[in-house]
Design brief:
It is built from 10 helices and 19 strands. By secondary structure, the protein is of the alpha+beta class. The protein has a 6-stranded antiparallel sheet, with helices on both faces. The protein is globular, with a radius of gyration of 25 Å.
C-alpha cells in the first residue's frame, strides 16, 4: 500500500511539474508575441537545466545574432584554457650588462583598474641596461569590424603588444581651471587648446595630438582617451616612469630564457566580465596567442580554440575579436549555452558567479534585474540595435539554469527591451 501511495504521489508531482513547464512556456511565448519590445526586432532565447541535461525553453535558439560583448565569454574561456593562474608579464634574458625584455600583451602594467603588476619594481631594481625588444606582432590597432570613428572613445583603446597605463590618457578638469591635469604626464606637451565649442578632449586620428576647449570648466570631470601606440611611445612611457633609460632593439634572434609573471588571472577576468572592459578582452587573446605560438595575433588564439576546445559547439561561431566591438561576430543562443556549460565545468560555482556582473548589485547589471535575492549572473552585450544577455539564472527552487537571451535589429529604446526581458526572466525564475 505504501509503495502504491509513493508511486501515486510521484506521478502527481511529475504531472504537476509538466503542467507548470507547459504553462510557463505558453506564457513566455505570449510575451514574445504581445510585448511591444519584441514585435519588430528579432529575439532568441534558450534556457538549459545542466542538472537534468534538458532544454527548458527554446525560441530561435539556432539563429545567429550579433553578440556584442557576449563575445567576452569566448575570451574568458580562452584565458581559462590557455593562460595559467597568473599572467605572463614579460619574457626576458640577460646578456652581458643588458636585460633584454619583450611584451606578452599583459594589460596590467600601470593599469589603474588592476592590481600592481610588479613589473615596475622588477625593472627598477635591475642594474643592467634595459632594452625593449618588440615581439612578433602584425595586428592593426583596432580590430576587424570596429567602428572607425570610435578611436577617441575610452572603450576603444588600441590593441598592443606592450600595454601601459591601460593604453589611455586621463584628462582631469577642475572647476575654474582651464588646462587639465594629465596622466601620464608625458602627454602634457601633446595637448593643444582651441576655440572649438567641443567641451571634451578630442585626439587627432593616427597621432597623439589632443585638442580641448579653451575655457574654464564649471564642474570637475575627467575623461579617458586612447593614445596612439608605437614601440617608441611605450619605451618613452616606461623610461619616464622608471626614471632611467629604456632603449629599443629590433631583433628576432634574441631568445628569451626567463618569464616574469604579474597578477592573478582572475583579476582581469573579473574586471572584463563585470564592467565589460574591451581592452582587457582583446589583450587576453593576444596573450593566449603568444603562449601558443610566440606571436601576438588574435586569430591564432581563435583558431586554436575553435579547433580544440570548441570544436563540438552546435553551431560554428563567427568569431573575430576578443571584445565584441566587431559587428562581424555572429553566435547562436544554443552555442552560447554550450559555451557557458563549458565555463561552468572549469570552476566552482562560487568562483564562477563572483566573476560575473550580478543583477541589482554589480557591474553592468547593477541597475537592472533587481531583486531581494540576486537571480541573474551574466554578461551583457550592447551595440546599437543589438542587445544580449547570457549567463546563469538562479530560480526560487535553487536551480542554477543556463540561459542566453539575444536580440538584434530592434528599434525600441534598449531600456524598453530590457523591461521585456526582465518580465520573461522573472517567469523563468519563479516557475522552474
Amino acid at each position: 500500500m505504501n509503495i502504491r501511495l509513493l508511486s501515486l504521489f510521484g506521478l502527481i508531482i511529475f504531472l504537476s511539474s509538466c503542467s507548470v513547464s507547459k504553462r510557463t512556456t505558453k506564457n513566455i511565448d505570449k510575451s514574445f508575441k504581445e510585448l511591444p519590445a519584441f514585435k519588430q526586432g528579432f529575439a532568441g532565447l534558450m534556457v538549459y537545466d545542466p542538472e537534468e541535461k534538458a532544454i527548458l525553453y527554446d525560441h530561435n535558439g539556432a539563429k545567429y545574432f550579433t553578440p556584442a560583448s557576449n563575445t567576452k565569454l569566448f575570451s574568458l574561456y580562452t584565458g581559462l584554457k590557455v593562460l595559467g593562474d597568473s599572467l605572463p608579464a614579460l619574457k626576458y634574458t640577460i646578456k652581458n650588462d643588458s636585460l633584454f625584455f619583450t611584451g606578452t600583451g599583459d594589460p596590467s602594467l600601470l593599469n589603474p583598474n588592476l592590481p600592481d603588476s610588479g613589473v615596475i619594481t622588477f625593472l627598477k631594481e635591475r642594474e643592467e641596461t634595459l632594452v625593449m625588444v618588440p615581439p612578433a606582432y602584425t595586428e592593426k590597432h583596432q580590430g576587424p569590424g570596429w567602428a572607425w570613428d570610435d578611436f577617441n572613445a575610452y572603450y576603444s583603446a588600441e590593441r598592443t603588444p606592450f600595454p601601459i597605463y591601460g593604453n589611455l590618457v586621463k584628462f582631469s578638469f577642475k572647476s575654474g581651471v582651464e588646462k587639465p591635469e594629465i596622466i601620464p604626464a608625458i602627454f602634457s606637451d601633446s595637448i593643444v587648446s582651441t576655440t572649438s565649442e567641443r567641451p571634451r578632449v578630442k585626439r587627432e586620428s593616427g597621432r597623439n595630438a589632443f585638442f580641448f576647449q579653451n575655457s574654464k570648466r564649471e564642474n570637475n570631470f575627467s575623461q579617458h582617451v586612447p593614445f596612439h601606440y608605437s614601440t617608441k611611445m611605450a619605451a618613452a612611457l616606461l623610461s619616464d616612469t622608471l626614471k632611467k633609460p629604456v632603449s629599443i632593439k629590433n631583433s628576432s634572434e634574441i631568445e628569451f630564457s626567463e618569464k616574469l609573471y604579474s597578477i592573478p588571472a582572475d583579476s582581469i577576468y573579473k574586471r572584463m566580465m563585470e564592467v565589460s572592459d574591451n581592452f582587457i578582452a582583446e589583450q587576453i587573446l593576444l596573450m593566449a596567442a603568444q603562449e601558443l605560438s610566440d606571436t601576438l595575433k588574435s586569430d591564432i588564439a581563435i583558431k586554436h580554440m575553435k579547433e580544440t576546445h570548441l570544436k563540438d559547439l552546435p553551431d560554428e561561431p563567427h568569431w573575430v575579436d576578443g571584445s565584441g566591438l566587431s559587428r562581424y561576430n555572429l553566435f547562436t543562443p544554443r552555442t552560447m549555452i554550450s559555451l557557458l556549460l563549458k565555463i561552468k565545468e572549469e570552476m566552482s560555482r562560487e568562483r564562477l558567479l563572483s566573476l560575473l556582473a550580478t543583477g541589482g548589485q554589480s557591474g553592468t547589471l547593477k541597475n537592472f534585474y533587481k531583486a531581494e535575492k540576486p537571480y541573474v549572473f551574466a554578461k551583457t552585450g550592447t551595440l546599437r540595435h543589438n542587445h544580449s544577455l547570457s549567463g546563469y539564472l538562479l530560480t526560487k527552487k535553487g536551480k542554477l539554469l543556463i540561459f542566453s537571451f539575444m536580440n538584434s535589429n530592434y528599434t525600441v529604446p534598449t531600456s524598453e527591451l530590457k523591461d521585456g526581458m526582465e518580465q520573461i526572466l522573472l517567469q523563468i525564475r519563479d516557475n522552474y
